[in-house]
From TrEMBL:
Lineage: Bacteria, Pseudomonadati, Bacteroidota, Flavobacteriia, Flavobacteriales
Keyword Chloroplast: no
Record's signal peptide: 1-22
Keyword Signal (UniProt): yes
Known cofactor(s): Ca(2+)
Keywords: Calcium, Signal
Limits of the Glycosyl-hydrolase 97 C-terminal oligomerisation domain: 566-667
Gene behind the chain: susB
Protein name, entry field: Alpha-glucosidase
Quaternary structure note: Monomer.
Length: 669
């Protein structure tokens, strides 16, 4: 049930007073509802500036705003204020699915309307919102007196950090998009980086810069030019133009989440709150789930994506996987490589020509779907575009129509390649519009979308709850065919990449030494850690990525059968970026809680207070831990399973081996 709490008389009074003040002042202040965060706006020598403070700590000192347009037209100065409006908003809304069921959206807003004093008299509106967990602002270019084509060549927004801090970053505009390992460095040493950008400030605050509700605009990256100043650097079109618009534009929200500690950033829902409410209504064709896949075998080299004597996607193998899926009580299976167009060079930068309606040799799509229906196993569709969108857009309606005809309701869409159509950046305005177009198109065919090699998440799942997950980072696959992900990667991404939204990391590898795969390739962690990832990494769909034979007869598979993917509430109990994290989540459909805790390469003892549990309830803690003596290099697949009766007043003492973890189900007795 949607609950809106708005006080119209108060809003009107604020608007009238503020509008009158606009004629007297060039400076305004906006505080969050609890007075925790404050934004100061100032028109300084006709140029808009803003600053941000958290309590008594100044976070952002006066910083620039505005744009540079084509022909060197400055759209960042020579302004006068024409109107100022203040308002407040408070609602509690319910996620269709998510890491928290009910989310409060409570903010105070300041809208400043500006007009340039030159002959063009261009208007610009800047909207500020102050939340207790951060601040946000965006630009609105309203319809002007005359029709206009706008070419934004640069955004002049800066974030002048009061002090330096440790930034956790990955580079922007590189060959592998956002699939890089996070590094840490002082803000003052950064080059151009992707968001979310997480910073541990010298003042002790945890900060995260990102953006929300990105549509028909370019993605924002951040560049450090001088000192501790970060500047917006929009991802360009191939010809260098940053944003092309006709008549009007609305930028994404520039966001700054602020926490007393890094864990606070994870349970901030500011990004979601800045997106439009659900436009799709009841998306009854999608319910959160776990799935198997003919996938890992291809990555470790056991099978091929293409037609060969080791072809992964065959009708026979699909039926065997469906048998296993049904036997173990699951209901979804992903099959990659099912269609025509796959070659040994499929991942190279070329305009690959895939078919999205024709089955590969030895694979019968209709027959496989029919077999799955008998077994109660739904097939997840797969489209690898190879970033050849010219080809994909010609076929997408037929491809989606085929899935709808067959009763399929999920599709994974890949975009392998350094550029879309070998020309445009994934993160530029072209890519932003393409990914939104496909998402809306999928909704017309009752399809939920899982994106790989896509733009970053900016919270659009609130508006389009068929946007269920995406990759947008280095996932499990890198453990199959590269040097792999170091253990600290998993203790960094919850505080960085995952702040933007769900991730299809593809956890659940039991054979972490990958005995059947490429020589010397492996998962750099323990099997118990893989179980814990279902709690520390959020997604409404979670893959059980290993081969069926590696699950067969393993007692630890029970945890994967039990753990949900849809939650009533989420609590991050403790964590330090790059070292460890402990996350607890409550099942949306039962009284049970689940907990996952993981560490980097260092063994660790953690004391977990169970105060998050219902104090009136007794629970059975079903514990899946690293066996004694287990770590990344010593018997890493060994999982010790035990049970213990616990209450909310208890403290659990857990030992995590190096690169290890523990997963727990708290079942109400």
């Amino acid at each position: 049930m949607l609950k809106n709490i708005i006080i119209p008389a108060f809003l009107v009074a604020l608007t009238v007073v503020s509008t009158a003040q606009a004629q007297k002042s060039n400076s305004y202040e906006l505080a969050s509802p609890g007075g925790i965060n404050k934004i100061k706006f100032n028109l300084d020598k006709s140029a808009p500036k803003y600053e941000v403070s958290h309590g008594k700590i100044q976070v952002i000192t006066p910083s620039d705003m505005g744009f540079m347009l084509k022909n060197n037209e400055d759209f960042s100065s020579n302004f006068e204020i024409t109107n100022v409006k203040k308002s407040t908003f408070d609602e509690t809304w319910e996620q269709v699915w998510g890491e928290k069921k009910n989310i409060r959206n409570h903010y105070n807003q300041l809208v400043v309307q500006l007009q340039q004093k030159d002959k063009n008299k261009r208007k610009l509106e800047i909207q500020f919102r102050a939340y207790d967990d951060g601040i946000a602002f965006r630009y609105v270019y309203p319809k002007q007196e005359t029709k206009d084509s706008i070419f934004i060549m640069d955004e002049k927004t800066t974030f002048n950090l009061k002090e330096d801090g440790k930034a956790w970053w990955i580079p922007a505009n590189r060959e592998n998009r956002d699939e890089y390992l996070f590094k840490d460095a002082p803000v003052s040493t950064l080059d151009t980086v992707l968001t979310p950008l997480t910073i541990e400030s010298k003042s002790g605050l945890a900060l995260s810069f990102h953006e929300a509700n990105l549509k028909d605009f370019a993605s924002m990256t951040l560049v450090n030019n001088i000192g501790t100043q970060l500047k917006s650097d929009l991802v360009p079109w191939a010809d260098g133009v940053k944003v092309r618009v006709k008549d009007t534009f609305t930028s994404s929200w520039r966001t700054l989440q602020i926490g007393e500690k890094p864990a606070d950033l994870i349970t901030s829902y500011l990004i979601l709150n800045l997106n439009d409410p659900n436009k799709l209504g009841n998306v009854n064709y999608f319910k959160p789930y776990k799935y198997f896949g003919i996938w890992w075998g291809m990555h470790i080299g056991k099978y091929t994506f293409w037609e060969s004597d080791k072809q992964g996607a065959t009708t026979k193998r699909a039926e065997e996987y469906m048998d296993f899926t049904a036997k173990e009580g699951f209901h979804h299976l992903l099959i990659e490589g099912w269609n025509k167009g796959w070659t040994p060079a499929w991942y190279e930068n070329k305009m690959h020509m895939f078919s999205f309606t024709k089955s590969a040799d030895n694979f019968d799509l209709e027959k496989v779907v029919e077999y799955g229906n008998k077994k109660g196993v739904a097939l997840i569709g797969y489209h690898e575009t190879g970033s050849n969108l010219i080809n994909y857009l010609k076929e997408v309606d037929d491809a989606f129509a085929l899935y709808k005809k067959l009763g399929m309701h999920s599709v994974k869409i890949g975009h392998v390649g350094s550029k879309l159509n070998m020309k445009e950046n994934h993160f530029g305005q072209f890519g932003v519009n393409y990914f939104r177009y496909i998402l809306e198109k999928a909704a017309q065919y009752d399809l939920a979308v899982l994106y790989h090699e896509s733009i970053k998440d900016t919270g659009e799942r609130r508006t389009f709850p068929n946007m269920i997950s995406r990759e947008a980072a280095r996932g499990q696959e890198y453990n199959a065919w590269s040097e792999g992900n170091p253990p600290n990667h998993l203790t960094i991404i919850p505080f960085t990449r995952l702040l933007s939204g769900p991730m299809d990391f593809t956890p659940g590898i039991f054979d972490v030494e990958v005995k059947q795969g490429f020589p010397s390739k492996r998962v750099h962690g323990t099997t118990a850690q893989q179980l814990a990832l279902y709690l520390t990494i959020y997604a409404p769909i979670q893959m059980m990525a290993d081969l069926p034979e590696n699950y067969e007869g393993k007692p630890a598979l029970q945890f994967l059968k039990d753990v949900p993917t849809d939650w009533e509430d989420t609590k991050v109990l403790e964590g330090k970026i790059g070292e460890y994290i402990t996350t607890a989540r409550k099942d949306r459909n039962s009284a049970d809680w689940y907990l996952g805790t993981i560490t980097n390469e260092k063994a660790r003892d953690v004391n977990v207070s169970l105060s998050f549990l219902d104090p009136k309830v007794t629970y059975e803690a079903q514990i899946y831990a690293d066996a004694e003596g287990t770590d990344e290099t010593h018997n890493p697949s060994a999982v010790a399973i035990s049970k213990k009766t616990v209450k909310a007043s208890d403290v659990l003492k857990l030992h995590l081996g190096g690169a290890g973890g523990t997963a727990i189900r708290f079942k109400k007795i």
